[in-house]
Amino acid sequence: MINLDGVGMRYPTGVVALQDVSLRIDRGEFVFLVGPTGSGKSTVLKLIQRIERATTGRVEVDGLDLCSLPDSQVPFLRRGLGVVFQEFKLLSDRSVADNVAFALRVTETDPTEISPRVRWALETVGMAHRADDLPARLSGGEQQRVCLARAIVARPRTVLADEPTGNLDPEAAWEIMQLLGAINLRGTTVLMTTHNSTLVDVLRRRVVELQAGRVMRDESRGLYQTAR
Amino acid sequence: MVRARGWSWARREALRDAIGGLRRNGLMAAAATTTIAIALMVAGGGILASFNLAHLASVLESQVEIVGLFRRDFTPQQQQRVLAAAKDLPGVRSAELVGRGEALKRLQKTYGSFGSIGSHLKTNPLPDSIEVRAGGVGQVRAVAAALERIAGVEEVLHGTPVVDRLVALTRAVRITGAAAAAALFAAALLIVLNTIRLTIAARRQEIEIMTSVGATPGFIRGPFVLEGVLQGAAAALAATVVLTGAYAYLAVQITGSLPFLPLLPPGAALPGALAVVWFLGIAVGIAGSEIGMRRYLRT
After folding, report:
1. Domains parsed from chain A with CATH numbers
2. What distance lies between CA B249 and its chain's CA centroid?
3. pLDDT, tens only, B254-266
4. Inter-chain residue contact B4 with A78, CB threshold 8 Å
5. How far is A164 from chain B (nearest CA, A)?
6. Using one digit for the tens of pLDDT, what is the confidence trace for B90-138?
7. Is A28 left (phi over 0), alpha (psi -120 to 50) or beta?
């Protein structure tokens, strides 16, 4: 469960990114976080990963108070979160399988578990047949699927997807959405920021809209934009 | 509280990643290692020179003796009386008479490699003499002055001014050597720092992913610090090979051509100097990596 309670966030530069944001996301939910650029969507994701600390209010993830969480425990918080980036961030000199295994290897997973879990993650996203290829040989959609496999390989409770379809054509974007939906059906919470109105409008999931750092609306089966 | 897996596992992984990192960034790593090696060679050479100057000073200090040259018409009985008087002087440790024949033999021994001195001389030009050793270097001047006052002693020679100058030179070399070593250490540190920064910049995405998936700072830092250690050790090894070879060669050459110069044998001079070289090499590697990584590991 993710809980933001009266959260405010001001960067050292003086920019106010969030103001009095309260938001509760239960286990297993699928939530679209929408809003214009600079509205505070990415800051919410950063607060949940404890990349940033809230300047006011309280942020809780799976019962942990992130404001008082010691720095030494932050890596272990992040092991419960899978992150998907807009720009994929795959290591170009390593194969697809090595990229996925990387997330397990650097988090000190039992070496005997790595291979079967990588296979499972790649099968889940339909990329097992490209396990030995380098990322450069893959299309954008395929690269994002590998990124998704890396995000889920440690079986996190929550997947945070920051504009995962931003660099993809519509067909690849739909494939990614189907995969995120499938992952969500297995009980994983999905929080996704997006500017893709079509996806939001067709899927009709919970939509939280931010504007100028404030929650403007929170609808259980929302559209990208309300009729105005 | 959650804890990471065992240290031995982490070390093994870090070593694997460090070797992988060096392989992937081979050219940059080679440049850094070569630079550190050159700095270490210069520093090691300075240390060896300093050791030898200190050794030379202590040898000369221990050998400082006062030589009183007798008048040519002085009889052996008169010389014996002077010997007895010299032994009674305050600050004298020992005294002995040296005949002119013995003095020539000693001269021949010292300059043995220059051929036979006797074959170039018709007569022995050296006078009979008395050799006096003082209890300490500080007493040499007083003993020499007292010896000069004894009748029949024509001239008194002692090496105190030379030793004084050598001690001053040794001190100067030590100070400038330490300053040069510190400057070289700082330069090597900056070079390693810069190289590791470039390496890290090239691998920033890797670090970002590690951070986002929950790798601990120690796990992320480990391979980079080990890379620094391996580079420092490789540089120290290269410096060890060059310094050992060069010192052994020079020791043979100098001992052959300047036999009166007391040079430390390789077995006595090299271990201490090389220990400093290895310490500096590895310290530069670790410090460079630690400082280079710091900015990327803020939670």
Report:
1. 1-80+156-228 (3.40.50.300), 91-155 (no CATH)
2. 16
3. 888 877 778 888 8
4. no
5. 16
6. 888 888 988 888 888 887 777 665 556 666 777 788 888 998 888 776 7
7. left
